[in-house]
Amino acid sequence: MSKIDLPDPRLNAYRDDLADDTLRGQVDAPRYVKGERRQVAAPVLPVRREPRFDATLDTEALLGETVAVFDESEGWAWVQLARDSYVGYMPSDGLSRKIVGPTHRVATLRTYVYLEPDGKAPALHLLSLNARLTCDAEAGKFLALAGGGYVPARHLVVEGETAPDHVAVAESFLGAPYLWGGRTSVGLDCSGLVQLAAEAAGHFCPRDADMQAAALGNPVDPAALSRGDLVFWEGHVGIMTSGEHLLHANAHHMAVELEPLALARERIRAAGYEVTCVRRLPRKHG
């Protein structure tokens, strides 16, 4: 089987020595493994290209997400994320074999888990937008987590409740630092910004810009842009906040920046890239 015929390794778990059991007949491997389901028990876990802390960060998994583990060695698990099917290596110690159904989602840019239901209590963890939590009781203005700790109730929504506008979600990241592979307000990249905003608004969204350009919404005439449209270049994506302004996490500003599309387009054209397509997510009604 030629490499050109193989499925995308970013979204399909196979290596020279083993492969996901569901890929029998699609890839050749000396061993096929059925993935073991586990859950992210840390606030955020890196997903790296190789099992090393200095390897490229491809994406991040947030608290409450589930993964399929195909292999473990020397503190690293080779996994596939349930959320978007991304494949990579993450630290094993941040994964739990106990799967707990989430009851709530973090709906603010970030929030803390406190030791007690008191804003003056010590903060235990910093959680990010779209992290999933299991809450089992109310404690005044806080919700108690099943595993211990308290989160401000106003920072959470019930699991399944979505934001009305993905653009407003994305705008809340303005000024957040750029980080290749990042998916939190502590650091994120262009497609991570789009993915977080789209998911918060209830849209399935792949991880990388090329995947998003192929899968999201419907094509739009670049001459008829409006708020919410996604503008794509090779390896880059931004969100229109109006017919003229683009919000994007980018390495030029090293941050999430809002600027005229014309200015961004001119700068990116000078680097040798033209807009490849524009996509529009389905509008919410009601």
List the helices and strands and how they pair.
Elements (H helix, E strand, L loop, with lengths): L18 E2 L11 E2 L2 E5 L3 E5 L8 E6 L3 E8 L2 E6 L5 E5 L3 E2 L7 E3 L3 E5 L8 E6 L3 E2 L1 E5 L2 E4 L4 E3 L3 E3 L7 H6 L11 E2 L2 E2 L1 H11 L8 H7 L2 E2 L10 E4 L2 E5 L4 E6 L4 E6 H10 L4 E6 L6
Parallel strand pairs: 1-2
Antiparallel strand pairs: 3-6, 3-9, 4-5, 6-7, 7-8, 10-13, 10-17, 11-12, 14-15, 15-16, 18-19, 20-25, 21-22, 21-25, 22-23, 23-24
Brief digest:
The chain is mainly beta. The chain has helices at 166-171, 190-200, 209-215, 261-270; strands spanning 19-20, 32-33, 36-40, 44-48, 57-62, 66-73, 76-81, 87-91, 95-96, 104-106, 110-114, 123-128, 132-133, 135-139, 142-145, 150-152, 156-158, 183-184, 187-188, 218-219, 230-233, 236-240, 245-250, 255-260, 275-280.
Keywords:
single chain; 286 residues; mainly beta; SH3 type barrels; endopeptidase fold (from Nostoc punctiforme); 3 domains; 6-stranded antiparallel beta sheet; 5-stranded antiparallel beta sheet; 4 helices; 37% strand
CATH class annotation of the largest domain: Alpha Beta
- Please report which band the strand proportion falls in: under 5%, 5-15%, 15-25%, 25-35%, 35-45% or over 45%: 35-45%
What count of helical segments does DSSP give? 4
What is the domain total for the residues? 3
Strand order of the largest sheet: 20-25-21-22-23-24
CATH architecture annotation of the largest domain: Alpha-Beta Complex
Share in helix = 10-25%
> Overall 3D geometry?
globular
CATH topology tier name of the largest domain: endopeptidase fold (from Nostoc punctiforme)
User: How many beta strands in the DSSP annotation?
Assistant: 25
Structural class: mainly beta
N/C terminus separation: 50 Å
How would a textbook summarize the main sheet?
A: 6 strands, antiparallel
Uncertain runs are none
Could you tell me the radius of gyration in angstroms?
20 Å
- Output mean pLDDT: 96
Question: Quick one: CATH superfamily of the largest domain?
Answer: endopeptidase domain like (from Nostoc punctiforme)
Order of helix and strand elements from N to C terminus: EEEEEEEEEEEEEEEEEHEEHHEEEEEHE
